[in-house]
Each structure stands twice: as structure tokens, then as C-alpha cells.
Amino acid sequence: MSNETRPLTKTPWAEIDKRVRRVDEDRWISSRFAPASQRRALTALYALNYELVRVQEVVSEETLGLIRFQWWREAIAEIEAGKAPRGHDVCLAIAEEAAEGRLKPGALQKLVDGYQTAFTEQDRSKEPEVWVALTAANILIPVHNWAEEIRSVSAAYATVRRKAGHAFGPHVSPAPKPLRPAVAHFRLRKLYCEGKAPNPLSKRFSIMKAMNTGEV
Known about the structure:
With 216 residues, the chain is mainly α. It has helices at 13-23, 25-31, 36-58, 62-80, 89-99, 105-120, 129-140, 147-161, 180-183, 189-193, 200-213. The longest helix is centred in the first third of the chain and has 23 residues, at 36-58. The protein is globular and about 45 Å long.
């Protein structure tokens, strides 16, 4: 029996994890390869990302959308100020990981700003997919030299995933091993640009290969 103790948490991590798996399976599979201490931070990031993405999907009136973005902006600011998080499970998750230093509120605010811009301009190509990937990478390695590769490959992946293009995008050098849980899903662009709808098994096979080789 392990003597390791874990801090008590009110965050419903299992429910949040199930949600991310359902709505963002690509990133969820990649995140499974992250160390346990960093996996929750990735899960919290992707759960917030979903909340921001769905504004575009469920709100048609600009004023109502702006209210939602402002709600998240204020919720994150309160967490940064050390106030008790709002009663939303994603707020609880963000607060817990921010307290551990694994999530930076400033980076999350940039995520809100990016999705608001895409929403108000009704241009999904402006969604901050690149920033999501850079933030995820920063959780794993605060300092690395793969930012330009992330920017280029993330943009190509986002385009083919939402069926806005069919170009594979740039070929880049293998990703550093510690970064791979944040970027391995980019390898799925090969399947997406071929017009395929990859099933869970093919996704796992492709992402596992990316984890082993670093080729995304």
C-alpha cells in the first residue's frame, strides 16, 4: 500500500474528463500520455476550450455571446485574484491547477479574447487553436524551441479538422518527447485531409505512432 497522500479536491475530475473525451477526443487521447500531474491541467484547459468553442455553436445573438465571454473573463480574473472559484466545474478545475502553477490565468484570458474575436467576426479561422496548443505545450515544458512548429502544424490541423481545407500542411522535425502529449493528435491531419472520419481505434493508432516517433 502506498503512503502517498493526495490533497482533497471538490473538483469533479471524472465528469470533466468524460466531457472532454466526448467533445474533443483527439486532444483527450493525446493527453492520456502526459504525466498524471500534468494531465489534469491539460484536461482543465481543454474543458475551458470547449466552453468557449460552444458559444459559437449555441449562441446566435452577438450580445448574448459577449455576455458569456465576459462571464469567463471575470471568472478567471477572480481565480487569479485568489477569490473562491465560481460554482462551475471548469472554474473549480482551473482554480485547482492555477493554484499548483500549472495553468496561467493570463494565458486563459488570451484564449477567451481569441474566441470572442472569432465569434464577433463570424470567422472560425480566427479561433485561437494555435494558442490552445502553445498553452498545452507550456504545461508540459515551460521553455522549449518548438513554438514555430506548433504554430504551423496547429493551424493546418485545425483547418482540415473543421473541413475548411484539404492540405496536409507543413512537414516538421520530430516533436521533442516531453511535448508529444500536447501535439501528438496533430498527426490525425493526415486522415482528416484525406476526407476520412477516423474512428476511435484509428485515432489511437495514429496518435500512438506520433508518441513513439514524434512525427506529427
